[in-house]
Amino acid sequence: MGDPEISIIVPAYNEEESIAELHASIAKQMDRLGRSFELIFVDDGSRDSTLMRMKDAQRSDPRVRIVTFWRNFGKANALSAGYRHARGRTIIQLDADLQDDPAEIGKFLKRLEDGSDMVVGWKKNRLDPLGKRIPSKIFNHLIMRISGVKVHDSNCGFKAYRREVMEHLDVYGEMHRYLPVIARWRGFRVSEIVVRHRRRRFGKSKYGIERLKKGLLDLVTISFISRHGRSPMHLFGTLSIIPFFLSIAQAAYIILDWALTGHELERPLAVTSVLMALWGFSILITGLMAEMLLMTVGPGRIVDSFSRVIEDTKER
User: Fold this and answer.
1) Which of 44, 289, 308, 313 gets the highest tally of CB atoms within 10 A of its CB?
2) Neighbours of 300 (CB within 10 A)
3) What pLDDT score was predicted for residue 225?
4) Predicted local distance difference test score (pLDDT) of residue 212
5) DSSP line for the chain
6) pLDDT score recorded for residue 302
């Protein structure tokens, strides 16, 4: 039996009540479309019976595969683990809370067939509480302004990709929020479609002030990467010119002052000149280290060290 055409990845953390219904809904929709698929549940270290519900689905459906973490590592790492185990040429991801409607999978596949490399869902009419909608709108507006990528809901959990897109992206930290931005910067064709958003019926939202803080910090990172990610030495080298110039200017002033007036060496100014030179040197070294890091394996690769695939439902 060959590899499936489509891999559907569902990360889940404490979503025990929704797993069975979500599995049934996805299977029904994919059977209706007549497309071969695998459903990869990624248990992100759930503390309830989420993993057991996943195993129940696997017993009844051989198309279900499970990746499980020893503890909670976050959505980005869960998605990254799912990508690494996916076998399909097309990858679809959606959240496990039933707020994404599997009946819309066909719309994503159609957009990919029309030429897009990545398709992002846009929850235009969100049914979340106001306290979640307002920060999300502000956050997405900031992303569009800083990145220049016109995607209204970059953090939407409902997305579809061609496999080659994920082969060129590393997902870690909270970077799953910026996948459309990174993909566009890498030259892939990114589009969006309006998707239906349903109210949460089970469990509770994982969104909070801590995730917002991390997201804002990663926004700074992604802004830096977009401009200088391919050659950080260009930035750090330019920045090092400023302290080097000040150091040389101060040294020249000290020498000229001594040569023309015979004044004694101005020690505070001399110390400042040396400190400026050391500052410039440290910035230059930072740039060199950043260039060296580009030669190493990306941080997303570490997910293989703390995840495992469950092929047998009897495995604990």
Assistant:
1) 44
2) 20
3) 65
4) 61
5) ----SEEEEEEESS-TTTHHHHHHHHHHHHHHHT--EEEEEEE-S-SSSHHHHHHHHHHH-TTEEEEEESS---HHHHHHHHHHH--SSEEEE--SSS-B-GGGHHHHHHHHHTT-SEEEEE-SS--S-HHHHHHHHHHHHHHHHHH----TTTT-S-EEEEHHHHTT----TTGGGGHHHHHHHTT--EEEEE--B----SS-----HHHHHHHHHHHHHHHHHHHHSS-HHHHHHHHHHHHHHHHHHHHHHHHHHHHHH-PPP-HHHHHHHHHHHHHHHHHHHHHHHHHHHTTSPPGGGGGGGSEEEE-STT--
6) 45
CA 140, chain centre distance (Å): 14
Model pLDDT, residue 49: 94
Q: What per-residue confidence (pLDDT) applies to 8?
A: 97
Residue 201 region, left (φ>0) first, then alpha (ψ -120 to 50), else beta? alpha
The first and second tokens of residue 21, run together, are 């219904």
* Residue 259: exposure state from Cβ atoms within 10 A (0-12, 13-18, ≥19): exposed
Beta strands 90-93; 64-69: pairing state:
unpaired
Q: Which amino acid is at 271?
A: V
Buried b (16+ CB within 10 A) or exposed e, 110-144: ebbeeebbbbbbbbeebebeeeeeeebeebbeebe
- At residue 36, the pLDDT reads 95
Q: Is the pTM of this model over 0.85?
A: no
Q: What is the CATH number of domain 6-228+299-310?
A: 3.90.550.10
Domain locations in the chain? 6-228+299-310, 232-293
Q: What pLDDT does residue 275 have?
A: 87
